[in-house]
Amino acid sequence: MSPLYDEHRDRGGPPTTTDAGAIDPKSPGSEEYFNSWFRDGNYKSHPAFTKVTSAPYPSAVTAGSKIEVYVTGPLDGPYSRISPDRSGSNAVMVPRTIIVREVLDANGKLTKITVMAKGLDGYNPALGDWYFGEFDPRGNVLLDAKGKPRTGKLTDCYGCHLPRAKDAYLFGVPDSARAR
Question: CA nearest 117: which of 102, 103, 136, 101?
């Protein structure tokens, strides 16, 4: 398995952040350990993550669903400049930045967690070094129809994200749903 961060780092303790809001390089780095951060909503209470939505907003991907977003780093960091309503923010996301999207059903129940994490240079150059992951509400990795984990360089995500190259391949949060 290709390293998302650095397979040789110490594997103790939770991730920490740098002043730029990125996961600290001293944090554990294997994809398996990385995926464990999403179990049981650990990201919600971890000080590295900031909730960037003031309220759930309608999903552009799944009709009837709503989205809540958490990002490593400050509320006014580079992610705050990116909006699905316009492109060309020229935002630059630092390696180890993590974006967590909670997918909620019409009743507000968590149905899925999707994650993007900015890997180190060279991790996934075809799409700005982004890692993708899909997890169930408990944080367990989802499997595709062939039983393969829905994590890593998920090329089926590229079609939507490639046109957003001038926005660090991201969509951000609608201005109306952004926490202030």
Answer: 101
How is the chain split into domains, by residue range? 31-177
Calpha distance 7→137 (Å, rounded): 26
pLDDT in tens, the chain (180 residues): 344 544 333 333 344 444 444 444 444 455 666 667 777 788 888 888 899 999 999 999 889 999 999 998 888 999 999 999 999 999 999 888 899 999 999 999 999 999 998 988 888 899 999 989 999 998 888 999 999 999 889 999 999 999 999 999 999 999 999 998
* Cβ atoms of 27 and 48 closer than 8 Å: no
DSSP for residue 107? T
Q: Which residues, in sequence order, are bridge partners of residue 72? A: 49
Q: Is residue 113 exposed (0-12), middle (13-18) or buried (19+ Cβ within 10 Å)?
A: buried
Provide the CB-side half-sphere exposure for 57 (13 A, CA).
17
